[in-house]
């Protein structure tokens, strides 16, 4: 394998400015999300409790991925088909 000298990276003023602008944009987006979450919590969603918190998180994940669970019927015909007992 060939060895070569490490490449020297130079940090330019333009790079620093670009980084700062992107960081400020990300921070402003994060603050907007937090504001939206606070408004949602003010509507009563935050007062649900810890037990329902898991279900709401699960529901948000299901909505995000497009999964719509169907409830399973609890009768014998659905479990065993049309067999007679």
From TrEMBL:
It is found in: Nucleus. Residues 73-85 have a biased composition (Polar residues). One of its GO terms (cellular component) is anaphase-promoting complex. It holds the Pfam family ANAPC_CDC26. Keywords: Cell cycle, Cell division, Coiled coil, Mitosis, Nucleus, Ubl conjugation pathway. Residues 52-61 have a biased composition (Basic and acidic residues). Residues 30-85 are annotated as: Disordered. GO terms for biological process: anaphase-promoting complex-dependent catabolic process; cell division; protein branched polyubiquitination; protein K11-linked ubiquitination; protein K48-linked ubiquitination; regulation of mitotic cell cycle. It comes from the Eukaryota. Pathway: Protein modification; protein ubiquitination. InterPro entries: APC_suCDC26 (IPR018860). Belongs to the CDC26 family. This is Anaphase-promoting complex subunit CDC26. It comes from Terrapene triunguis (Three-toed box turtle). The gene is CDC26.
